[in-house]
Amino acid sequence: MQVTSKSRDCDMKDIPCLARYKEKWSTLRPTSKIDGLEMEMEVSISCEECLPACSDTTYHVQTTSAAMTKHRYDMSDFL
To answer: Which GO terms describe its cellular component (predicted)?
Structure first.
C-alpha cells in the first residue's frame, strides 16, 4: 500500500466504511454554489478534475428572440 501525506489506498478492511458512506462517494459536489443545492454541497465530495459520470445529464440552454413582421419579397430573380 502506497501512503502519501494526505491519502491512502483502501483495502478489504475498508469495505464496511465505504458501504456506509456509499452515497457520499458516488455523489460529486457541484462545482459552483447554486441556490437549492445546499444539501448536495454537504453530502458530496469535491472533485474538480473529475469528468461527469455517463449517467449525468447537463443541458446548456441559450435563447434568442426577435420581432418578425410579415413582408412579401420579390422572388422572380431568385436563382
So the answer is: membrane
Q: Is residue 24 part of a domain?
A: yes
Is residue 3 one of the residues assigned to a domain?
Answer: no
Strand partners for 28: 45
Tens-place pLDDT, residues 5-64: 577 777 888 888 878 877 766 666 666 666 776 666 676 676 666 666 666 666 677 888
Q: Tell whether the torsion through CA atoms of 29, 55, 51 and 8 is positive or negative.
A: positive
Measured between alpha carbons, how far is 53 from 2 in angstroms, rounded to an integer?
27
Sequence-distant (6+) residues with CB within 8 A of 41 are 29, 30, 33
Is residue 25 in a domain? Answer: yes
Q: Residue 44: which domain range?
A: 12-32+40-48
